[in-house]
Fold:
Amino acid sequence: MRPRVFCGIAAAIALFATACGSGGGGNSAGGDRGGDGGPATAAGFPVKVADCQGRETTVEQAPKRIVTSNAASLEMLLQLGAGDRVVGTGFPPGRGSLPAALAEQGAKVPVLGDKVIAKEKLLGSGADLYVDTFGSMPMMGGAGAGPSEEEFAAAGIQHVMLLSTACAGTPKAAKAPRTDLAEVENDIRRLGAVTGTAARAEELVAGMEQQIGEVRTATAAVPAEQRPSYFLFDFDAGTKQPVSVCGRQVANAVITLAGARNVFADCDADFKPVSWEDVVAGNPDWIQLAVRNRGSEEENRKAFADAEAFLRSFPATQGLKAVQDGRFLRIGSEVTTIAGVRNADTVRQIAATVHPALVKNGR
Structure:
């Protein structure tokens, strides 16, 4: 599905990029609000949503035919209960990467492009709404420039973005490290408002906040300087040169909320190629073996084992304390670096591993 270099989490440059804004609480501009800034009408419409530059789109009624740019926006719509209206997607979810409860429905969504959907196919899809995870950022392995706003309008397609993933390269992108999931939650609310599933969106966000709140309460007494350092090893991006998740990536928020310290949090980007010398200098307490879901437990176990074997045999990493102590986390790429409901589950899973005395049994 993706080229070898940047084919894992690093493919998020094209697949699932990062953070737009510092992520405060509550609804942000472009959320489920009416045109005057107050609540939307009783039926939920019209709804105004903004792009990364603040340009607004008014959605007058719930869409009937939705196309998603990739698996991130597709999964959000499936979680919201709007999956029956999705008529196509680009960058389809990998085998086994969707939650079991959504896998069958997700597999039925027509694939309009193994990577970025070709402009002509997107405009001719018959969609009335396109949910865009990318925005105007460069798309690896894509099909050229996407449609202009004028072309979307001429085709009768309204264009909305996941702001938590589409805005990393814009002037409005957060410069400070991303430390919460507020923008991800706002995207869920935003899609809920646009699709008429706002009540379900609030349920999903409430569940995320409950899980995260429990972890934060459990780890609150741990001083910042005593929180373990953490390196997310993007095995699928290749091993010649490691690729770090930086401060703007959603994974930085996941790691931070779990009570750990991303060794590359100060990197002002979403993903960035680094050197093995940089990793050694960080000498992380814990290393996440982040691999893309292979589609079966057996294949996943092998991928995790291969990632660990590399770190144990590679001269530059053999001496790392995490490697010597066997402090590895086997948690997949998708649930850590792709914006979505399952980010909260990953927060809890990491916390239960790095703070076992405080967060027991993942709770």
The chain has a mean pLDDT of 86. The longest strand covers residues 229-234. Residues 129 and 158 are 5 Å apart (CA to CA). The chain has two domains: 9-208, 221-362.
